[in-house]
Amino acid sequence: MKSIAIIYGSSTENTKNAALKIAEYLSDYSPTLYDVYHGEEEPFLTHDVLILGASTWGIKDLQDDWSDFYHTFEKLDLTGKTVALFGLGDSFIYPDSFVDAIGIVYETLVEKGCTIIGHVSPEGYHFDYSRALVNGVFVGLPLDDDNDSELTDERIKNWVESLKEHLN
User: Fold this and answer.
1) What is the pTM for the complete model shown?
2) How far, in Å, CA of 77 to CA of 141, rounded?
3) H runs (alpha helix) in the chain
4) For the chain, first and last CA: distance in Å?
5) SS3 of the chain: helix, strand, coil, percent, to 5
């Protein structure tokens, strides 16, 4: 079984709560949770599968902890890693930059030769533009706890199920 790190940054606890829920649904795989706030490189380098959670703040801005760590992140050798992304955003106040943070992280990961899993259809989401929408699909799981919190648990559960084929 592949080792899994769930690495997230969270200012309001929403991304952390999503990470905890993902870990709960993946409990059979014994994932390890890390807060990017601590700036540790080790989890990125020693785990086979990375599940990265980032929220979008304002217009196209990464959450503060991700922003602080990003220069280190860009220098890591993640060649060959399997990565899934999830992100939180507000599709009503920021419909032109909905979950852009996962799009920003995605672009860096693609340059590093990572395999990205966990794409999600935009069906059922309401937004105008997202940097995380590539070739007609989201590059990870978008969550909007501000406006669609009643959908969060089901979206996480379905997304985690779609990841499992890549985790053995």
Assistant:
1) 0.96
2) 24
3) 14-25, 42-46, 64-75, 100-111, 149-163
4) 5
5) 40, 25, 40
